[in-house]
Structure formats: C-alpha cells, structure tokens
Amino acid sequence: MAILLTGGAGYIGSHTCIELTKEGYDVIIVDDFSNSSPKVMERVKEITGKDIPLYRADVADKEALSRIFAENDIETVIHFAGFKAVGESCRLPVKYYRNNIDSTLTLLEVMAEYGVHNIVFSSSATVYGVPKKVPLTEDMDTGCTNPYGWTKLMIEQILRDTATADKEFSAVLLRYFNPIGAHESGRIGELPNGIPNNLMPYITQVAVGKLKQLSVFGNDYPTHDGTGVRDFIHVVDLAKGHVAAVKYVASNKGAEVFNLGTGIGNSVLVIVKAFKDANGIEIPYVIAERRSGDVAECYADPKKAFEGLGWKAEKNLTDMCKDSWRWQSSNPDGY
Ligand code: UD1
Question: Which of the four pLDDT bands, split at 50, 70 and 90, describes residue 89?
C-alpha cells in the first residue's frame, strides 16, 4: 500500500516525502514540475537512500492519473499540487480556479473509480481572511481576500461534501500557517520562482547578496513593534504533521480540519533579528508601505492538532533561521 503525493516534488511535498519514507511508508510522486525541479528527487534519494517512484504528469490529466492508480496500490493521497502565488491569482483568477479546482475534481473522480477513500489536503491559514481575533481556532469564520485563497476554501468544501455523500471517505484538511526552514542537510528547501513574495526567502536572498535590502511592509500595525505578526513553522514540523494526518485518515471517516502552526506569533522585525542572531548576518531593511491584502496578526491555536493528531511543532525560530540559511547559502542558484 502506498501514499500518492500530488505535487510531491514541491517545497512541502519533498519534505513530507522524506518524513513518510523515514516512517516506513511507500511513497509515489506525481508532479508536472511547473513549480519545482526534477533534481529535487535526486536530493531526496541522497537523503533517504530510496528511489521514490515518480510520474511526470498534470493531476488534471485524467488518463495519466488513472494509469498511476492502475499501476499502484494506493491507500491515501496527499494533495499538494496547485498554483499558490497570491498576486498572480489576483491577475489571473480563471487560471487559478481552472487549475486548482479542476485537478482536485479529476483526482476525486479517479480516486472514486479505484476505491481510494483517504485524502489529506494542503489548505492554508489564508482561508481565515482577516482574523477577528487571534489565536485562530478551526471553528472561526472563513472568507478570503484573493482567488488563491478561495480555491483552497472551495476545495475544503468539495472534500466536505464528498465526505457527506460517501460514508467511506476520509479527508483531513490541513491549514498551514507560514512554513519556513529547510531540511537540516541543506540539500532541499524552498525555491521561489523569480523575486520571492514571502518573507524568509526574501531575507535569505538578501543575505546571499542576490537582493539589496528587505522592504518591511508597514510598521504601523497594531502589534508590539508595528510590523506584521505571523506563525512561522519549520517545514519539517509541517511535514511531520502530514505523517500524523495519514495515520488519522486511515482510522477515521468524515472530513476534519486542523491548523498546523506553532501557536506563537512573531513579527517581521523579530524574524530579521532572529536571522542575525542565528547566522551572524545583518539584513539591511527599509520600511515600506503596507502590502495590500496583508493582515496585522495571524497565528494558530494548535490545540486541536495536538489532541486529534497527536502532533505539535517542535523546532524553534533559531532552527528555522539556521536551516533556511544553510539551504540558501549552499545552493545560491537553486538546484
Ligand atoms: C502569504 C500569502 C498567503 C499564503 C502564504 C504562503 C499574501 C497576502 N498571503 O502569507 O496567502 O498562504 O504566503 O506561505 O501574500 N513581508 C515583508 N516584506 C517582504 C515579504 C513579507 O515585510 O518582502 C511581511 C508581510 O507583510 C507579512 C510577513 O512578512 O507581515 C509574512 O509575509 P509572507 O511571508 O508573504 O506570508 P503571508 O503574507 O502571511
């Protein structure tokens, strides 16, 4: 019995592949490499000592996907594949709805044809929209500020409806907070396309000399130092959350949502200082305008994941900063 990872060569997928393999699971990957490199899999092999079966295909390609299900004994799917750039989704909403929703529907059709009932889905804290209060619990209101976020929320709903209709179906919806860090080997990590949108890749590219300085988007938020507060979580902790979710779907039915965060909010300036303390590198920055769509504070209440999945984040901010830098500094130009 194997676990199929759609988008398994991506940042979170590749780290999850390693953690699952460590726990003795057989993993299969389907990825079209639209936002990842085939070299990731060579690095994963270096780390795990295993050749992970890999299919190069688009999840929305029903024929190709059916072949994967026909050739393998798949027990559970972890569905990472999807477009994820917030800004691009605002410019090209139809592209995002078409890709993210279509591929999920195709996946669910093929799963049903082959009698596969278990799925773990990559959702995002972005589905909480503008939080009314923090920390965020899973029962709080949802609503999005961009099409990317809406695709996540719509897929959550599709999975809930599927679980209502099919009593055999089991779905775990994982709402990620802000994953950063990299595998401690420094061999795999996050590789954004072009200039990074997210904070940590931007910081590491400043540190490595590819970008001049960081722009801190706003210092007049109602937070302790005026800069935005987020729940940064180490990607290896996040990957371990998927292992826990795979175990959960194997023994539970229905759809259940869990936050994957640390429960700790850290501001942009705290991250800049933590990076300096961990790596001895000062990050030059300027204060810039607020970025449209940003919220002041967003961090998780991770209690439900602890109680339901037996999972909690274990790595600290120093680990996150050191591991992000090890990856960036040893791979300045990516793979
Ligand atoms: C962003 C997305 C979110 C997505 C998540 C994936 C937006 C509005 N939200 O979350 O939907 O799920 O990434 O990881 O894009 N910052 C700077 N300078 C920078 C970059 C970021 O000051 O160059 C600040 C931001 O204003 C924010 C914090 O750093 O306060 C974190 O930003 P980021 O890493 O982009 O994550 P989110 O905005 O939380």
Answer: very high
Q: DSSP states of 26-94 as a string? A: EEEEEE--SSS-THHHHHHHHHHS----EEE--TT-HHHHHHHHHHS-EEEEEE--S---HHHHHH-HH
Whether the model clears a pTM of 0.85, i.e. scores above it, the answer is yes
Q: What is the pLDDT at residue 193? A: 86
Residue whose CA is at the smallest distance from ligand 1 atom 20 = 199
Domain layout of the chain by residue ranges: 2-183+231-261+301-314
Is the minimum distance from the CB of 118 to ligand 1 under 6 angstroms?
no
Arithmetic mean of pLDDT, 41-62:
98
- Which of 55, 96, 148, 221 does the annotation list as catalytic? 148
The SS3 assignment for 195 reads coil
Residue with tokens 């029962």: 139
Q: Tell me which fold the domain 2-183+231-261+301-314 belongs to.
A: Rossmann fold (3.40.50)
